[in-house]
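Recall the central idea of this unit: under ordinary conditions, the amino acid sequence of a chain determines the structure it adopts. In this exercise we apply that idea directly, starting from the sequence alone.
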Amino acid sequence: MKNKWYFCAALILIIIFSSCADTEKKAKKLVNYMTELERNSIVFSPVSPKQRYYHEVADVAQYIQEMSVYDEELEATYIIHITLPPDYNEKKSYPMYMMTDGIWRLSDHAELRPLMVDGEIEDIIMVSIGYDYGINAEAAETRMIEFIQKSALFLDFITNNLAPYLGELYNIDYNRSALMGHSFGGNFMHYAVFNSDKYENQPFHYYVMASLSTPDVVARYYRGNDPIAAETDYFERNKVLTKKIYVTAGEREYAILTNIENFKTRMKGHKVKTIEYEIWEGADHSNYVKPMMRKSLLKYYGIK
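Accordingly, the structure predicted from this sequence is:
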């Protein structure tokens, strides 16, 4: 009888602890700092044919949600595209793979989704951030606003508004989520990494820093954004860098390769061990991006 009581007590404890573990897994949320105006601005719809490269996703558009949201600080509206896993279950948690430069990344929703369908990667939530329709999203001058000139406000928008709001809609595993940026977006990844510790919210663990432009190019657009100073400041505040970073570029991006080598030297000086570097053989500034993104998904979420 006594052994039976011990068995029942142990079983009850196991159930309680399991329940607590599940609750903790589902309960991890970020603090949402959206204003009432920003929340009320949100509109969901199917992918709009106004998107310049809509033809590239027309066959799978039914799997992609489009969200429009206004940000007061940036005084701008952003178009967010969201692709859920094929068998999305609201009771499960999923890593999020968030991409900047949504005008180009929309096609990646279509190209990368089969990795989930075919079982090459685990189920994830794919998100891309683009500009409102009518804005020239491909112009350097447009991209400079968020990526360089107003990088602090753009990081605020992603960290304190967008990522927490998406977490209200979906059960996101932020501990395994990733943020990706290429070219000037790569510069923004650098800014995001070395300012991430300033935030209570921590929506990302992985960062894809592709074709990181040289500091002199950044200074040409905005003198106040000094990448090297950002690194120095970070390590004055922190002993180690725990974020995992994938730094990559094309072999023919000569100035950028020099920049990456200098970055590598500085990170070795700080004894950083969480950065992986890869140079794509024969590639230029853009023709390696899609296979690189595919590889990053296999790296973080591949099923072996």
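The chain has two domains: 1-29, 31-301.
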